[in-house]
């Protein structure tokens, strides 16, 4: 009995160990694939006048995960697939688009039905008005008699209102004259007070100007000292060493990210042929420094710019992490941080 229990426990432990080893191997396999399998990118675009088109794709692990997008007429649709199954935009967006189309169709039908109903109601109202024409005529005659008496009363009331308005205007004119006299006296007194305060204002402005000049001179003196400190920091050994490390790693990163296939076909032209020649010289210098060989066709007769571009390359996550870790843990960065903190405290 005891040995059977030990055998069962041993089998359970072995199965647990097998599961743990399987999970460990799976994690190692996934991390290895993520780190060492490159992400491939492919991009192509064209520009011909107002016609702008672009198309790109990024894939990983033989298109196990792929993201593709387009740009045409100001729209950028995209598709994300995993193992050939479309994940984004997904079925939810498609359902929403269908519902939107169905709602638009229903609204169009409702508009047609409302127009028909309005036409039928208008016809019925015209018939009812013809039938009730005689009765309405009699009612209108009685109403006109009553309105004649009311108009006489309204004329009397209008005459009284006009008299009241004239009286109110006279009273308002008198009040305005009294107010203007009071305002004149107040303005005269305030102007006299202002003239008495002019010498004080002049003295205060002189004081402010002198204080501002003193502050400017003090800022210039302190600015000179700060400028000397900043110059020493920029041209110091710590800063220059860190710049050299960053430059070397950026060049290493560019050599890794640089497209394996780069095809550029351009047609360039300006109104002035001399400007076209100068631009061609700048492009040649830049492409020679970057190691790019585009196909540039100059047009010395008219102003034009057209281009077609195609880029293909790959990026490995392991190389990117290696460069970042190398820069982050280098001694030059630590010394640069120390000198930067010291100068920041002084400034």
Q: Strand pairing plus helix content: what structural class?
A: alpha+beta
Helix segment tally:
8
Mean pLDDT: 78
What is the CA-atom radius of gyration, in angstroms?
A: 44 Å
- Helical content, roughly? over 70%
Uncertain stretches of 5 or more adjacent residues: 126-143
Instruction: Bin the strand percentage.
Output: 15-25%
Could you state the oligomeric state of the chains shown? single chain
| Number of beta strands | 8
What pattern of helices and strands is seen along the backbone?
Answer: HEEEEEHHHHEHEEHH
Largest sheet: 8 strands, mixed
- The dominant shape is extended
Cross-sheet strand order for the largest sheet: 5-4-3-2-1-8-6-7
Separation of the first and last Cα atoms: 81 Å
Keywords: Membrane, Transmembrane, Transmembrane helix
InterPro entries: DUF2953
Organism: Butyribacter intestini
Pfam family, one: DUF2953
């Amino acid at each position: 009995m005891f040995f059977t229990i030990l055998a069962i426990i041993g089998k359970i432990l072995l199965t647990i160990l097998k599961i743990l080893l399987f999970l460990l191997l799976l994690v190692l396999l996934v991390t290895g694939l993520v780190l060492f399998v490159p992400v491939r990118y492919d991009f192509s675009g064209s520009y011909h006048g107002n016609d702008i088109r672009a198309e790109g794709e990024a894939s990983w692990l033989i298109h196990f995960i792929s993201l593709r997008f387009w740009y045409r007429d100001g729209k950028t649709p995209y598709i994300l697939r995993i193992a050939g199954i479309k994940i984004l935009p997904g079925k939810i967006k498609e359902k929403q688009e269908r519902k939107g189309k169905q709602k638009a169709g229903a609204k169009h039908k409702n508009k047609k039905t409302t127009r028909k109903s309005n036409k039928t109601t208008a016809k019925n109202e015209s018939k009812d008005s013809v039938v009730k024409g005689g009765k309405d005529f009699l009612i209108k005659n009685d109403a006109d008699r009553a309105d004649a008496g009311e108009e006489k009363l309204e004329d009397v009331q209008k005459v009284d209102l006009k008299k009241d308005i004239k009286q109110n205007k006279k009273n308002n004119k008198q009040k305005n004259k009294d107010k203007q006299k009071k305002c004149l006296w107040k303005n005269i007194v305030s102007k006299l007070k202002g003239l008495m305060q002019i010498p004080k204002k002049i003295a205060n402005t002189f004081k402010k100007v002198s204080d501002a000049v003193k502050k400017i001179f003090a800022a210039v003196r302190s600015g000179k000292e700060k400028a000397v400190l900043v110059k020493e920091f920029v041209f110091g050994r710590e800063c220059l060493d860190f710049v050299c490390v960053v430059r070397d790693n950026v060049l290493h990163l560019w050599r890794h990210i640089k497209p394996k296939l780069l095809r550029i076909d351009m047609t360039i032209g300006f109104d002035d042929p001399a400007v076209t020649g100068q631009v061609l010289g700048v492009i040649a210098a830049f492409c020679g420094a970057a190691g790019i060989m585009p196909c540039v066709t100059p047009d010395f007769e008219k102003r034009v710019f057209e281009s077609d571009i195609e880029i293909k390359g790959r990026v490995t996550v392991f190389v990117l992490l290696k460069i970042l870790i190398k820069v982050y843990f280098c001694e030059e960065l630590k010394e640069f941080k120390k000198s930067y903190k010291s100068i920041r405290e002084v400034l």
